[in-house]
Amino acid sequence: MKKKLYNIITVLFFSVVIASCGGSDGDGGDGGVAPTPDTPNTAPSAVSQLIYPTSDLLCIDSTVNFEWAAATDPDGDTVSYELRVALDNNMTNLVEQVTSTTTTRTLTLQPGTAYYWTVTAKDAEDSASPSQVFAFYTEGEGVSNYAPFLADLVSPNEEDAVVSGTTSLNWSGADVDINDTLTYDVYFGTSNPPTTAVSTDLTVENFDVSTDPATTYYWQIDTKDNSGTKTIGAVWTFTTN
Questions:
Q1: Is the CATH number of domain 152-240 2.60.40.10?
Q2: What is the dihedral sign for C-alpha 24, 27, 30, 31?
Q3: What kind of fold does domain 50-138 have according to CATH?
């Protein structure tokens, strides 16, 4: 009887030892839950629409009430908006860069000036891609003619690699004086900025140039209206294969 009782106690003892030394969930024996990696943050969606001022609008007041469509954030984060206003369509010559928690912002700008604007949605960690860029003009006192807007790049895209041979340069122009007929001077070459006018007084918005392989080219479009008022274009570049 004593031997049987001793055997039972021994079995119970070793069962307790095994249970206390073995992990209950196979994670190293501490019984804890493995930490969950942090979920990567996702940037908000881009602003899909610039509501006001609309593209190529003549604003009769230099105090402009900007408005745009709301963005969404997949993580449910609070979204803010960076509104940028510049004197060029590449958004490098900034005159305003402000942040708003709403989809509107009022800014007072200079009269009689061509401006370009874009909006970028942001959360606490990331930014979306900027919206498209719209041009607008603030009316000046006594102004009877407005300079054309800078020509907009269509193709080739900035710093594109293209097949050598014949390359088609494409752009678009605009003017708040809707009755003006725009003409274009095309500058093209391997120097930056290009100094050779390969065509002048074009009434179309494209021009074909001959290109050599493995070469970087620069091009520029100057825009003129009926009154001879000229807007000097930005310099764009591409490389041939």
A1: yes
A2: negative
A3: Immunoglobulin-like (2.60.40)
The answer to whether 50-138 and 152-240 have equal CATH topology is yes
Q: Give CA–CA dist 50/234, Å, rounded.
A: 23
How many Å apart are CA 215 and CA 175, to the nearest integer? 34
| Residue-range domain boundaries for the chain | 50-138, 152-240
Encoded amino acid at 67, one letter = E
Side-by-side strand order, sheet with 80-86: 57-59, 134-138, 113-122, 80-86, 94-100
**140 contact partners, CB below 8 Å, separation of at least 6:** 111, 112, 113
Report pLDDT digits (tens) over 157-208: 999 999 999 999 999 999 998 889 999 999 999 999 999 999 999 999 999 9
| Closest by Cα among 111, 105, 123 to 46 | 123
Whether the CB-CB separation of 84 and 95 falls below 8 Å is answered with: no
Q: 3-class DSSP state for residue 53?
A: coil
- pTM of structure: 0.66
Q: Dump the DSSP string for 147-207.
A: PPPPPEEEESPTTEEE-SEEEEEEEE---SSTTPPPEEEEEEESSSS---EEEEEE-SSEE
Q: Model confidence over 67-104: pLDDT tens digits?
A: 999 999 999 999 999 999 999 988 999 999 999 999 99
Distance CA 151, CA 172 (A): 6
Mapped onto helix, strand or coil, the DSSP state of residue 5 is helix
81 to 99, 112, 123, 138, 139: CA distances (angstroms): 5, 27, 9, 23, 27
